[in-house]
Amino acid sequence: MKKIIRLITAVAVCQLVGLAGSLVTTPAIKSWYSTIKKAPFNPPSWIFAPVWTLLFILMGIAVFLIWNKGLKKKKVIVALYYFTVQLILNFLWSFLFFGLHLPLLALINVAFLWIFIFLTIKKFLPLSKLAGYLLFPYLLWVSFASILNFFVWRLN
């Protein structure tokens, strides 16, 4: 039962970060975002919510697997630190890009986000291969989002 509560907590925390980001993102999609120039390969806006929901679920499962390794282990604490930093950077990107309409600062932020996702994977893999692998789709999506962010900055 303890593990089930941990899993639900881990996924819920990640989903709450996504929800917090969506509170900034959603109002901007119909207003600011719909008026700016985007990359020709920019996906339709409706695709982002299901993709991010799935990615936050995968993040939650990954962090749950690491959390289960024990909070008394230094490697676990370090791995969770990196995970927390990337989660904060994830929310900050939504705030910078959609909330403040600052694509250049969002692009700088997403570069740091990418680095911290990569470092999180690097810290997770020795503790749990599955936890590390669960973050690869997230890294790939953030790579794609970085390219989209770059185009928005350059075109506008």
- Uncertain segments are none
Secondary-structure element order, as H and E? HHHHHH
Q: What is the fold-level CATH name, i.e. the topology?
A: Ferritin
Q: Tell me the major beta sheet.
A: none
- Strand segment tally: 0
CATH class: Mainly Alpha
Rounded average pLDDT: 97
Describe the global form. Answer: elongated
* Category by helix and strand content: mainly alpha
Number of domains as seen in the coordinates: 1
Oligomer: single chain
Q: Give the % helix.
A: over 70%
The percentage of residues in β strands lies in under 5%
Distance N to C terminus: 51 Å
The CATH homology group name: TspO/MBR protein
Q: What's the Cα radius of gyration?
A: 16 Å
Could you explain how this protein is built, in words?
With 156 residues, this protein is mainly alpha-helical. It has a single domain (2-155), classed as Ferritin (Up-down Bundle). The protein contains six helices and no strands. Helix 1 runs parallel beside helix 3 and helix 3 (74-99) packs antiparallel against helix 4. The longest helix is centred in the N-terminal third of the chain and has 34 residues, at 2-35. The mean pLDDT is 97.
Topology, element by element:
Blueprint (H helix, E strand, L loop, with lengths): L1 H34 L12 H20 L6 H26 L3 H22 L4 H6 L1 H20 L1
Helix pairs in contact: 1-2, 1-3, 3-4, 4-6
List keywords for this structure.
156 residues, 82% helix, mainly alpha, Ferritin
Question: What's this model, at a glance?
Answer:
The chain is mainly α. It is elongated and about 50 Å long.
